[in-house]
Amino acid sequence: MAEKKTPRRPAPLKAATKPRKPARAKADAPAGLDLAQVRAQIDGIDQQIQALIAERARWARQVGKAKGKLAAAVDYYRPEREAQVLRRVVDRNHGPLADEVLVRLFREVMSACLAQQEPLKIGYLGPEGTFSQQAALKHFGHSAHGLPLGSIEEVFQEVAAGHADFGVVPVENSGQGTIQVTLDMFLTSPLRICGEVELRVHQHLLSRSGRIEDIERIYAHPQAFAQAAGWLRTHLPRAEKIPVSSNAEGARRARHADDAAAIAGESAGLAYGLKRVAGPIEDRSDNTTRFLVIGRQPFPPSGNDRTSLLVSIRDRPGALYGVLEPLARRGISMSRIESRPEHGGKWQYAFFIDVAGHCDEAPLKDALDEIAAQGDALRVLGSYPVAIA
Protein backbone atom coordinates (compact mmCIF):
# COMPACT_ATOMS: atom_id res chain seq x y z
CA MET A 1 0.00 0.00 0.00
CA ALA A 2 1.38 3.40 -0.91
CA GLU A 3 2.44 5.56 1.97
CA LYS A 4 -0.03 8.36 2.63
CA LYS A 5 1.54 11.76 2.09
CA THR A 6 0.86 14.56 4.53
CA PRO A 7 1.55 18.25 3.89
CA ARG A 8 4.81 19.55 5.27
CA ARG A 9 4.60 21.63 8.42
CA PRO A 10 4.76 25.31 7.43
CA ALA A 11 7.48 27.54 8.80
CA PRO A 12 6.43 29.90 11.62
CA LEU A 13 5.12 33.22 10.39
CA LYS A 14 7.38 36.20 10.98
CA ALA A 15 6.17 39.71 11.68
CA ALA A 16 4.69 41.21 8.52
CA THR A 17 7.22 43.51 6.89
CA LYS A 18 7.27 45.02 3.43
CA PRO A 19 9.89 43.10 1.40
CA ARG A 20 12.68 45.16 -0.08
CA LYS A 21 12.80 45.62 -3.82
CA PRO A 22 15.26 43.15 -5.44
CA ALA A 23 18.70 44.48 -6.27
CA ARG A 24 19.10 45.76 -9.82
CA ALA A 25 21.95 43.40 -10.63
CA LYS A 26 19.81 40.36 -9.80
CA ALA A 27 16.94 41.66 -11.96
CA ASP A 28 19.29 42.09 -14.93
CA ALA A 29 21.10 38.78 -14.47
CA PRO A 30 19.25 36.80 -17.22
CA ALA A 31 20.10 39.41 -19.89
CA GLY A 32 23.01 37.37 -21.28
CA LEU A 33 21.04 34.15 -21.68
CA ASP A 34 19.86 32.95 -25.08
CA LEU A 35 16.19 32.25 -25.82
CA ALA A 36 16.41 28.53 -25.05
CA GLN A 37 17.98 29.24 -21.65
CA VAL A 38 15.35 31.85 -20.81
CA ARG A 39 12.56 29.41 -21.69
CA ALA A 40 14.23 26.72 -19.57
CA GLN A 41 14.26 29.14 -16.62
CA ILE A 42 10.56 29.89 -17.15
CA ASP A 43 9.73 26.17 -17.36
CA GLY A 44 11.52 25.56 -14.08
CA ILE A 45 9.68 28.41 -12.38
CA ASP A 46 6.36 27.12 -13.74
CA GLN A 47 7.10 23.74 -12.20
CA GLN A 48 7.79 25.33 -8.82
CA ILE A 49 4.63 27.42 -9.00
CA GLN A 50 2.54 24.36 -9.83
CA ALA A 51 4.05 22.41 -6.94
CA LEU A 52 3.37 25.27 -4.51
CA ILE A 53 -0.24 25.63 -5.70
CA ALA A 54 -0.75 21.89 -5.17
CA GLU A 55 0.75 22.21 -1.68
CA ARG A 56 -1.53 25.14 -0.90
CA ALA A 57 -4.53 23.13 -2.06
CA ARG A 58 -3.56 20.28 0.29
CA TRP A 59 -3.30 22.69 3.21
CA ALA A 60 -6.65 24.24 2.27
CA ARG A 61 -8.13 20.75 2.46
CA GLN A 62 -6.65 20.40 5.94
CA VAL A 63 -8.48 23.60 6.96
CA GLY A 64 -11.72 21.92 5.90
CA LYS A 65 -10.91 18.84 7.97
CA ALA A 66 -10.00 20.99 10.99
CA LYS A 67 -13.43 22.63 10.86
CA GLY A 68 -15.13 19.25 10.98
CA LYS A 69 -18.16 18.11 9.05
CA LEU A 70 -20.01 21.24 7.93
CA ALA A 71 -23.33 21.47 6.13
CA ALA A 72 -22.29 23.00 2.81
CA ALA A 73 -19.63 24.96 0.91
CA VAL A 74 -20.94 28.24 2.29
CA ASP A 75 -19.88 27.15 5.78
CA TYR A 76 -16.22 27.00 4.67
CA TYR A 77 -16.18 30.44 3.04
CA ARG A 78 -14.62 33.28 5.06
CA PRO A 79 -14.59 36.64 3.24
CA GLU A 80 -12.66 38.36 6.03
CA ARG A 81 -9.84 35.81 5.68
CA GLU A 82 -9.72 36.20 1.88
CA ALA A 83 -9.57 39.99 2.25
CA GLN A 84 -6.61 39.69 4.62
CA VAL A 85 -4.76 37.39 2.20
CA LEU A 86 -5.34 39.73 -0.75
CA ARG A 87 -4.22 42.80 1.20
CA ARG A 88 -0.94 41.03 1.94
CA VAL A 89 -0.58 40.30 -1.78
CA VAL A 90 -0.90 44.03 -2.52
CA ASP A 91 1.48 44.98 0.31
CA ARG A 92 4.16 42.58 -0.98
CA ASN A 93 3.88 43.65 -4.61
CA HIS A 94 6.76 45.64 -6.11
CA GLY A 95 5.98 44.87 -9.75
CA PRO A 96 6.32 44.30 -12.56
CA LEU A 97 2.72 43.04 -12.48
CA ALA A 98 0.02 45.48 -11.31
CA ASP A 99 -1.80 44.99 -8.01
CA GLU A 100 -5.08 44.10 -9.71
CA VAL A 101 -3.37 41.41 -11.79
CA LEU A 102 -1.88 39.69 -8.75
CA VAL A 103 -5.13 40.03 -6.81
CA ARG A 104 -6.96 38.31 -9.68
CA LEU A 105 -4.42 35.48 -9.76
CA PHE A 106 -4.58 34.85 -6.03
CA ARG A 107 -8.38 35.11 -6.07
CA GLU A 108 -8.51 32.29 -8.61
CA VAL A 109 -6.13 30.15 -6.53
CA MET A 110 -8.32 30.63 -3.44
CA SER A 111 -11.47 29.97 -5.48
CA ALA A 112 -10.08 26.67 -6.76
CA CYS A 113 -8.89 25.62 -3.29
CA LEU A 114 -12.30 26.37 -1.75
CA ALA A 115 -14.08 24.45 -4.52
CA GLN A 116 -12.34 21.27 -3.35
CA GLN A 117 -15.02 21.09 -0.67
CA GLU A 118 -17.88 22.10 -2.97
CA PRO A 119 -18.26 25.04 -5.40
CA LEU A 120 -20.12 28.04 -4.04
CA LYS A 121 -23.40 28.85 -5.83
CA ILE A 122 -23.56 32.55 -6.69
CA GLY A 123 -26.73 34.22 -7.94
CA TYR A 124 -26.41 37.29 -10.15
CA LEU A 125 -28.50 39.41 -12.50
CA GLY A 126 -28.38 37.51 -15.78
CA PRO A 127 -28.33 36.37 -18.47
CA GLU A 128 -24.73 35.46 -19.27
CA GLY A 129 -22.54 38.44 -20.16
CA THR A 130 -23.83 41.03 -17.66
CA PHE A 131 -21.60 43.27 -15.58
CA SER A 132 -23.12 41.53 -12.56
CA GLN A 133 -21.59 38.27 -13.81
CA GLN A 134 -18.23 40.00 -14.20
CA ALA A 135 -18.49 41.30 -10.63
CA ALA A 136 -19.34 37.82 -9.35
CA LEU A 137 -16.32 36.33 -11.14
CA LYS A 138 -14.06 39.11 -9.84
CA HIS A 139 -15.13 38.46 -6.25
CA PHE A 140 -15.56 34.68 -6.15
CA GLY A 141 -13.34 33.46 -9.02
CA HIS A 142 -14.17 31.10 -11.86
CA SER A 143 -14.41 27.99 -9.67
CA ALA A 144 -17.67 29.22 -8.17
CA HIS A 145 -20.90 28.11 -9.85
CA GLY A 146 -22.86 31.04 -11.30
CA LEU A 147 -26.67 31.18 -11.28
CA PRO A 148 -27.96 33.78 -13.78
CA LEU A 149 -31.33 35.12 -12.62
CA GLY A 150 -33.95 37.31 -14.21
CA SER A 151 -34.07 40.24 -11.79
CA ILE A 152 -32.47 41.76 -8.70
CA GLU A 153 -35.53 40.70 -6.71
CA GLU A 154 -35.00 37.10 -7.80
CA VAL A 155 -31.36 37.21 -6.66
CA PHE A 156 -32.54 38.19 -3.16
CA GLN A 157 -35.22 35.48 -3.19
CA GLU A 158 -32.87 32.67 -4.26
CA VAL A 159 -30.28 33.55 -1.62
CA ALA A 160 -32.93 33.85 1.11
CA ALA A 161 -34.36 30.45 0.12
CA GLY A 162 -30.92 28.82 0.26
CA HIS A 163 -30.85 27.95 -3.44
CA ALA A 164 -27.83 30.25 -3.84
CA ASP A 165 -25.08 30.65 -1.24
CA PHE A 166 -24.51 34.31 -2.06
CA GLY A 167 -25.81 36.89 -4.50
CA VAL A 168 -24.19 39.80 -6.33
CA VAL A 169 -26.36 42.86 -7.02
CA PRO A 170 -25.52 46.38 -8.29
CA VAL A 171 -26.12 49.18 -5.80
CA GLU A 172 -24.69 52.39 -7.31
CA ASN A 173 -22.89 53.85 -10.29
CA SER A 174 -20.31 56.62 -10.07
CA GLY A 175 -22.15 58.73 -12.63
CA GLN A 176 -25.82 57.75 -12.34
CA GLY A 177 -26.19 57.16 -8.62
CA THR A 178 -28.17 54.52 -6.77
CA ILE A 179 -29.92 51.45 -8.16
CA GLN A 180 -33.08 51.98 -6.16
CA VAL A 181 -34.55 48.50 -6.45
CA THR A 182 -31.53 47.10 -4.56
CA LEU A 183 -32.01 49.47 -1.63
CA ASP A 184 -35.75 48.82 -1.58
CA MET A 185 -35.17 45.08 -1.26
CA PHE A 186 -33.29 45.63 2.01
CA LEU A 187 -36.42 47.22 3.51
CA THR A 188 -38.08 43.80 3.69
CA SER A 189 -35.32 41.22 3.13
CA PRO A 190 -33.53 39.57 6.09
CA LEU A 191 -30.31 39.14 4.07
CA ARG A 192 -26.97 40.63 5.11
CA ILE A 193 -24.29 42.43 3.11
CA CYS A 194 -21.13 40.28 3.13
CA GLY A 195 -18.89 42.12 0.68
CA GLU A 196 -18.56 44.73 -2.04
CA VAL A 197 -17.07 44.79 -5.53
CA GLU A 198 -16.05 47.83 -7.57
CA LEU A 199 -16.07 47.18 -11.31
CA ARG A 200 -14.78 49.59 -13.94
CA VAL A 201 -17.54 49.61 -16.56
CA HIS A 202 -16.90 50.08 -20.28
CA GLN A 203 -20.01 50.33 -22.45
CA HIS A 204 -19.82 49.33 -26.12
CA LEU A 205 -22.27 49.60 -28.98
CA LEU A 206 -22.70 46.10 -30.41
CA SER A 207 -24.61 44.76 -33.41
CA ARG A 208 -24.81 41.76 -35.71
CA SER A 209 -23.51 43.60 -38.78
CA GLY A 210 -21.08 45.93 -37.01
CA ARG A 211 -22.25 48.87 -39.16
CA ILE A 212 -23.54 52.00 -37.43
CA GLU A 213 -25.54 53.05 -40.51
CA ASP A 214 -27.72 49.91 -40.16
CA ILE A 215 -28.89 50.73 -36.63
CA GLU A 216 -32.51 51.82 -36.14
CA ARG A 217 -33.14 50.64 -32.57
CA ILE A 218 -30.97 50.06 -29.50
CA TYR A 219 -31.57 47.74 -26.53
CA ALA A 220 -30.01 48.48 -23.14
CA HIS A 221 -30.63 48.71 -19.43
CA PRO A 222 -31.83 52.23 -18.46
CA GLN A 223 -28.58 52.81 -16.55
CA ALA A 224 -26.56 52.08 -19.70
CA PHE A 225 -28.65 54.55 -21.72
CA ALA A 226 -27.95 57.19 -19.06
CA GLN A 227 -24.22 56.42 -18.97
CA ALA A 228 -23.91 56.84 -22.75
CA ALA A 229 -26.53 59.59 -23.25
CA GLY A 230 -24.12 62.16 -24.67
CA TRP A 231 -22.58 59.77 -27.17
CA LEU A 232 -26.00 58.60 -28.35
CA ARG A 233 -27.23 62.18 -28.87
CA THR A 234 -24.22 62.89 -31.08
CA HIS A 235 -24.02 59.69 -33.11
CA LEU A 236 -27.49 58.06 -33.10
CA PRO A 237 -30.03 60.75 -32.21
CA ARG A 238 -32.88 59.16 -34.20
CA ALA A 239 -32.44 55.54 -33.10
CA GLU A 240 -35.25 54.08 -30.99
CA LYS A 241 -34.12 53.33 -27.43
CA ILE A 242 -35.71 50.20 -25.93
CA PRO A 243 -35.07 49.54 -22.20
CA VAL A 244 -34.54 45.93 -21.09
CA SER A 245 -33.80 44.18 -17.78
CA SER A 246 -30.05 43.94 -18.41
CA ASN A 247 -27.49 44.84 -21.06
CA ALA A 248 -26.88 41.17 -21.75
CA GLU A 249 -30.60 40.71 -22.42
CA GLY A 250 -30.31 43.58 -24.90
CA ALA A 251 -27.40 41.83 -26.60
CA ARG A 252 -29.42 38.62 -26.77
CA ARG A 253 -32.23 40.45 -28.57
CA ALA A 254 -29.95 42.43 -30.87
CA ARG A 255 -28.38 39.28 -32.33
CA HIS A 256 -31.57 38.54 -34.32
CA ALA A 257 -31.59 41.58 -36.68
CA ASP A 258 -29.10 43.74 -38.57
CA ASP A 259 -30.99 46.96 -37.75
CA ALA A 260 -30.78 46.35 -33.98
CA ALA A 261 -27.94 47.10 -31.59
CA ALA A 262 -27.22 46.80 -27.88
CA ILE A 263 -25.20 48.73 -25.34
CA ALA A 264 -23.24 46.23 -23.27
CA GLY A 265 -19.81 45.05 -22.20
CA GLU A 266 -17.45 43.18 -24.49
CA SER A 267 -18.21 39.90 -22.72
CA ALA A 268 -21.86 40.18 -23.81
CA GLY A 269 -20.73 40.68 -27.40
CA LEU A 270 -18.65 37.52 -27.22
CA ALA A 271 -21.47 35.56 -25.60
CA TYR A 272 -24.01 36.49 -28.28
CA GLY A 273 -21.83 36.76 -31.38
CA LEU A 274 -22.07 40.52 -31.86
CA LYS A 275 -19.51 42.85 -33.43
CA ARG A 276 -18.28 46.05 -31.81
CA VAL A 277 -19.64 49.09 -33.63
CA ALA A 278 -18.06 51.64 -31.27
CA GLY A 279 -16.68 51.85 -27.78
CA PRO A 280 -16.11 52.59 -25.10
CA ILE A 281 -19.04 55.02 -25.40
CA GLU A 282 -19.67 55.93 -21.75
CA ASP A 283 -19.69 59.70 -21.14
CA ARG A 284 -17.48 59.52 -18.03
CA SER A 285 -13.97 58.07 -18.15
CA ASP A 286 -14.24 56.92 -14.52
CA ASN A 287 -17.51 55.02 -15.03
CA THR A 288 -17.57 52.50 -12.15
CA THR A 289 -20.35 50.38 -10.67
CA ARG A 290 -20.36 49.19 -7.06
CA PHE A 291 -21.90 45.81 -6.33
CA LEU A 292 -22.92 44.25 -3.04
CA VAL A 293 -22.44 40.61 -2.06
CA ILE A 294 -25.49 39.42 -0.13
CA GLY A 295 -25.72 36.38 2.12
CA ARG A 296 -27.52 34.95 5.11
CA GLN A 297 -25.08 35.54 7.96
CA PRO A 298 -22.63 38.15 9.32
CA PHE A 299 -18.84 37.71 9.35
CA PRO A 300 -16.05 38.81 11.72
CA PRO A 301 -13.84 41.88 11.17
CA SER A 302 -11.14 41.78 8.47
CA GLY A 303 -9.15 44.80 9.65
CA ASN A 304 -10.43 47.24 7.00
CA ASP A 305 -14.22 47.13 6.90
CA ARG A 306 -17.28 49.12 5.95
CA THR A 307 -20.69 48.92 7.63
CA SER A 308 -24.06 49.59 5.99
CA LEU A 309 -26.89 50.77 8.24
CA LEU A 310 -30.64 51.09 7.80
CA VAL A 311 -32.20 53.64 10.16
CA SER A 312 -35.91 54.40 10.47
CA ILE A 313 -36.28 57.74 12.25
CA ARG A 314 -39.27 58.93 14.26
CA ASP A 315 -40.54 62.34 13.11
CA ARG A 316 -39.09 64.83 15.60
CA PRO A 317 -36.84 67.93 15.47
CA GLY A 318 -33.16 67.04 15.04
CA ALA A 319 -33.88 63.35 14.44
CA LEU A 320 -31.27 62.89 11.70
CA TYR A 321 -28.74 64.92 13.68
CA GLY A 322 -29.22 62.52 16.58
CA VAL A 323 -28.14 59.65 14.32
CA LEU A 324 -25.16 61.38 12.72
CA GLU A 325 -23.74 63.22 15.76
CA PRO A 326 -22.57 60.08 17.66
CA LEU A 327 -20.71 59.04 14.52
CA ALA A 328 -19.09 62.45 13.96
CA ARG A 329 -18.12 62.82 17.63
CA ARG A 330 -16.13 59.59 17.44
CA GLY A 331 -14.46 60.50 14.16
CA ILE A 332 -16.26 57.81 12.15
CA SER A 333 -16.19 58.55 8.43
CA MET A 334 -19.50 58.38 6.55
CA SER A 335 -19.17 57.61 2.83
CA ARG A 336 -22.83 57.57 1.85
CA ILE A 337 -26.32 58.52 3.04
CA GLU A 338 -29.57 58.17 1.13
CA SER A 339 -33.25 58.17 2.03
CA ARG A 340 -35.92 55.87 0.61
CA PRO A 341 -39.68 55.78 1.29
CA GLU A 342 -40.57 53.15 3.86
CA HIS A 343 -43.17 50.52 3.09
CA GLY A 344 -44.88 51.01 6.43
CA GLY A 345 -46.65 54.31 5.83
CA LYS A 346 -47.04 57.42 3.69
CA TRP A 347 -44.30 60.08 3.97
CA GLN A 348 -42.16 57.89 6.19
CA TYR A 349 -38.51 57.44 5.21
CA ALA A 350 -35.62 55.16 6.01
CA PHE A 351 -31.98 56.21 5.73
CA PHE A 352 -29.27 54.02 4.24
CA ILE A 353 -25.88 55.00 5.67
CA ASP A 354 -22.40 53.61 4.91
CA VAL A 355 -19.71 54.20 7.53
CA ALA A 356 -16.13 53.08 8.12
CA GLY A 357 -15.47 50.27 10.60
CA HIS A 358 -16.99 47.00 11.77
CA CYS A 359 -20.11 46.91 13.94
CA ASP A 360 -18.43 44.62 16.48
CA GLU A 361 -15.45 46.93 17.04
CA ALA A 362 -15.04 50.29 18.78
CA PRO A 363 -15.59 53.11 18.10
CA LEU A 364 -18.43 52.13 15.72
CA LYS A 365 -19.95 49.66 18.18
CA ASP A 366 -20.20 52.38 20.85
CA ALA A 367 -21.79 54.83 18.39
CA LEU A 368 -24.39 52.26 17.30
CA ASP A 369 -25.28 51.48 20.92
CA GLU A 370 -25.86 55.20 21.52
CA ILE A 371 -28.00 55.58 18.40
CA ALA A 372 -30.10 52.53 19.28
CA ALA A 373 -30.71 53.92 22.78
CA GLN A 374 -32.49 56.94 21.25
CA GLY A 375 -35.41 54.72 20.26
CA ASP A 376 -35.02 54.82 16.49
CA ALA A 377 -35.16 51.54 14.57
CA LEU A 378 -31.55 50.71 13.71
CA ARG A 379 -30.53 47.69 11.64
CA VAL A 380 -27.01 46.72 10.66
CA LEU A 381 -27.31 45.47 7.09
CA GLY A 382 -23.77 44.16 7.23
CA SER A 383 -20.12 44.79 8.06
CA TYR A 384 -17.80 43.63 5.28
CA PRO A 385 -14.28 44.06 3.84
CA VAL A 386 -13.68 47.19 1.77
CA ALA A 387 -13.30 46.32 -1.93
CA ILE A 388 -9.74 45.39 -2.96
CA ALA A 389 -8.24 46.30 -6.35
TrEMBL record:
Its EC number is 4.2.1.51, 5.4.99.5. Gene3D superfamilies: 3.30.70.260, Chorismate mutase, Periplasmic binding protein-like II. Residues 121-296 form the Prephenate dehydratase domain. It comes from the Bacteria. It comes from Thermomonas haemolytica. The lineage of its organism: Bacteria, Pseudomonadati, Pseudomonadota, Gammaproteobacteria, Lysobacterales. This is Bifunctional chorismate mutase/prephenate dehydratase. SUPFAM superfamilies: ACT-like, Chorismate mutase II, Periplasmic binding protein-like II. Keywords: Amino-acid biosynthesis, Aromatic amino acid biosynthesis, Cytoplasm, Isomerase, Lyase, Multifunctional enzyme, Phenylalanine biosynthesis.
